[in-house]
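thought: fold this chain, then report.
action: predict
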Amino acid sequence: MTTDHFKQFETLHQGNQVLILPNIWDAASALLCQAVGASALATSSAAVAWSLGYADGGSLPVSEHLGAIQRILRVSRIPVSIDIEDGYSSDPIQVAELVKTLSDLGVVGINIEDGNGSPQLLCEKIRSIRSALQGRSLFINARTDVYLNRGNESEDSLSEVIQRLLHYQNAGANGGFIPGLTSLAKAQRLAKKITIPLNLMLLPGMEAPTQFYTAGIRRLSYGAAPFQSSYALFNHLSKDVLKNKIPFGIFDHPLDYDYLNSEVFVLERGSPLSEYRD
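observation:
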């Protein structure tokens, strides 16, 4: 990652429209989003885990995760942020070492969550990351799982989210991520209390992205939904072929072979990585 890549990503959170980050899981999904005009990319930890045959929730070996990230970075010409769940450790120093490795690979940002842990632990992880980076720029998007864990949007939940995000902001986070918050009114109240850019996960029934931007939300993402939707189609087609013996749906909406094999979609053989990442 260069300073320009980080500045580009940071600026996307300050524009005159909401940043919508497509959530990817491998080199092919990164290339598809890039080819249709994405400004930046973000992984879904669940989608990356499932794509490699592991369950979500800390089961993915770090070595395999790093391999997947390297393959994504090999083809990406735009900023990439990585979801690392809780950092795969309760040890802030170990988490910081992982994040430093990611920064060395070329990522511009991370998502790191409090999950079922204490907000104090996530603050320690954020401070440890900042110390390990020694002033190097990295966009830390601190995720709080208050709404996901409680399954409601009560006033108590909103108050706790505000307190947690204030702690994460003071610890060195660049942004706050609140998956499970769907209320436009509560999002607006939250944005008035927190000065760092806020990120919500788009879910069914929510208002349009433009309305959330007006309410003060600066970033929206989809989580694992693109993976689930894509593989639902693959699952359906596979059943047609293997069980129903009706394979014709496979040919209904294929991506063109020449497009998938073109320089628009794939890197030229032998092209140096630095051509795209410097």
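thought: worth noting. The radius of gyration is 19 Å.
final: tokens above.
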